[in-house]
């Protein structure tokens, strides 16, 4: 006798739900670069992007907006701390507006978490919010790891380890800067935390979209080791709430809280810069406080033109001149993620250097 087949009443519970990809990774690991590049692929033009940035100024939002119609910016703050309800509201609104035909139709959502975010609450929100789980399904967690800074971040940042632990796919970035010798040791560290995620390498966001989609219900998240990171509140059948942070470093670290001395400073400047004044200010800042400067990004008005500047710890990435302003705001907007620095110090330095470089001598 042949066993009975699935029969007419068995439905795929995920059918028809919009897949959501959570893109995470430590500060400056290349999330925006990857997403902006993905959106240029022909098959990725029906994607809504939700961006969660730390800092009051949405730089990533502006940059991604240049390649997608549907970009939502979550309120200032970190997904894991204050803006979880914002994520719920944003996804609900997106769905409602899509159904009402008020926004361009989309069949996939990509959420970029802030570099300091613990992605677990976002995973949890998608899994447990009844309305959201009716319309959306988590397709996978993609974690970017910067080959230049990754090894240090792994050993010093609980957020970084948690982002790796939750990954279905790990994308190693910036091998072009670090060299291929850096990959092996970094991968050993990554594997200590998450042995089951797929690993890909990507330079400047170069990755086929098919690698990031259809990651399924998270084989890595189903692993017992990974589930320990999710902590209380999400019962996925794990009974051992051991903190893997402690296992990795040999000492316990707080699971989901940020280092309270890490601060985000957002500065705007009304007057255009000349490039040499800006460059000298940045060099001075890095020389004075390099180790405390985790991340700098912004759009600088250089004699009227928009130039994107980026620094990730001691690495200053080449500035990129945009061919147009992303919006009407022409001010210089800079975000500094620092340890123990004050906005006045940075502004004072820029003002002092600026006064030595009058613009008419540019
Ligand atoms: N050389 C090189 N640079 C890269 C690569 N990926 C990203 N970058 C650069 O690294 C800098 C930071 O990249 P972003 O995409 O802004 O990183 P992010 O993870 O979105 O940054 P946060 O949102 O601040 O956490 C930019 O200057 C990028 O051009 C890469 O593979 N190689």
Automatic annotation (TrEMBL):
Catalytic activity, reaction form: GTP + H2O = GDP + phosphate + H(+)
UniProt domain CobW C-terminal: residue ranges: 262-354
CDD domains (alphabetical): CobW-like
UniProt-listed Pfam families: cobW (PF02492), CobW_C (PF07683)
Any GO MF annotation of the entry: nucleotide binding
UniProt xrefs under PANTHER family: COBW DOMAIN-CONTAINING PROTEIN (PTHR13748:SF62), COBW-RELATED (PTHR13748)
Family to which this protein belongs: Belongs to the SIMIBI class G3E GTPase family. ZNG1 subfamily.
Protein name (Swiss-Prot/TrEMBL): GTP-binding protein
Keywords: Chaperone, Hydrolase, Nucleotide-binding
A GO CC term assigned to this protein in UniProt: cytoplasm
InterPro entries: CobW-likC_sf, CobW-like_C, CobW/HypB/UreG_nucleotide-bd, P-loop_NTPase, Zinc-reg_GTPase_activator
Physiological role: Zinc chaperone that directly transfers zinc cofactor to target proteins, thereby activating them. Zinc is transferred from the CXCC motif in the GTPase domain to the zinc binding site in target proteins in a process requiring GTP hydrolysis.
């Amino acid at each position: 006798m042949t066993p009975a087949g699935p029969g007419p009443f068995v439905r795929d519970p995920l059918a028809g739900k919009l897949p959501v990809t959570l893109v995470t990774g430590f500060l400056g690991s290349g999330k925006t670069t990857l997403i902006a590049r993905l959106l240029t692929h022909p098959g990725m033009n029906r994607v809504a992007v939700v961006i969660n940035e730390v800092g009051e100024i949405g730089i990533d939002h502006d940059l991604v907006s240049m390649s997608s119609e549907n970009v939502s910016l979550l309120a200032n703050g970190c997904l894991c701390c204050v803006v979880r309800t914002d994520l719920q509201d944003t996804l609900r609104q997106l769905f409602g507006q899509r159904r009402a035909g008020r926004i361009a139709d989309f069949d996939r959502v990509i959420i970029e978490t802030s570099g300091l975010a613990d992605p677990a609450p976002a995973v949890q929100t998608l899994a447990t919010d009844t309305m959201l789980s009716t319309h959306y399904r988590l397709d996978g967690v993609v974690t970017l790891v910067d080959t230049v800074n990754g090894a240090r971040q792994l050993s010093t940042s609980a957020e970084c380890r948690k982002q790796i632990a939750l990954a279905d796919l790990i994308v190693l970035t910036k091998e072009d800067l670090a060299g291929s010798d850096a990959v092996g040791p970094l991968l050993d560290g990554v594997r200590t935390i998450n042995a089951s995620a797929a690993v890909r390498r990507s330079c400047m966001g170069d990755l086929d979209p098919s690698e990031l989609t259809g990651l399924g219900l998270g084989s890595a998240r189903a692993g017992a080791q990974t589930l320990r990171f999710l902590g209380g509140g999400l019962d996925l059948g794990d009974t051992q709430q051991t903190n893997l942070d402690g296992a990795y470093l040999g000492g316990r670290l707080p699971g989901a809280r940020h280092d309270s001395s890490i601060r985000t400073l957002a500065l705007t400047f009304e007057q255009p810069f000349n490039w040499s004044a800006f460059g000298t200010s940045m060099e001075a800042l890095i020389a004075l406080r390099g180790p405390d400067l985790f991340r700098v990004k912004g759009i600088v008005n250089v004699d009227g033109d928009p130039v994107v500047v980026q620094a990730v710890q001691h690495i200053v990435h080449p500035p990129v001149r945009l061919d147009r302003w992303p919006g009407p705001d022409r001010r210089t907007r800079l975000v500094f993620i620092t340890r123990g620095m004050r906005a006045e110090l940075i502004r004072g330095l820029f003002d002092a250097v600026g006064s030595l470089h009058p613009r008419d001598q540019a």
